[in-house]
């Protein structure tokens, strides 16, 4: 009985960590990729889009560093 309880506790913790990865990294990653794509689109149309592009790249780098810092064991 005790082993099955530990299994479900571990499974619940595993699901919570997946939610953390999804909310903390996937959604902001999609947002930063949107910024990068919008910056490239504006640059291709000869509009001012370099700041948006650079902000998206910096945000992606920040997410990568946060991922390495939190999950590198």
Structure description:
With 73 residues, the protein is an all-alpha fold. The protein has a domain at 24-73. It is 89% helix and 0% strand. The protein has two helices and no strands. It has helices at residues 2-44, 50-71. Helix 1 (2-44) packs antiparallel against helix 2. The longest helix is centred in the first third of the chain and has 43 residues, at 2-44. It is elongated.
List low-confidence stretches: none
Tally the beta strands. 0
Main sheet makeup: none
Report the order of strands and helices: HH
The overall pLDDT, averaged over residues, is 83
Structural class, from secondary structure content? mainly alpha
Oligomer: single chain
Q: How are the SSEs placed, and which strands pair?
A:
Elements: H1 2-44, H2 50-71
Helix pairs in contact: 1-2
Task: Supply the key terms.
single chain, 73 residues, 89% helix
TL;DR?
The protein has helices at 2-44, 50-71. It is an all-alpha fold.
């Amino acid at each position: 009985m005790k082993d099955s309880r530990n299994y479900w506790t571990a499974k619940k913790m595993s699901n919570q960590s997946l939610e953390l990865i999804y909310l903390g990294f996937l959604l902001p990653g999609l947002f930063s990729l949107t910024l990068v794509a919008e910056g490239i689109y504006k640059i291709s149309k000869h509009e001012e889009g370099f700041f948006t592009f650079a902000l998206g790249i910096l945000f992606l780098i920040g997410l990568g560093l946060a991922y390495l810092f939190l999950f590198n064991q």
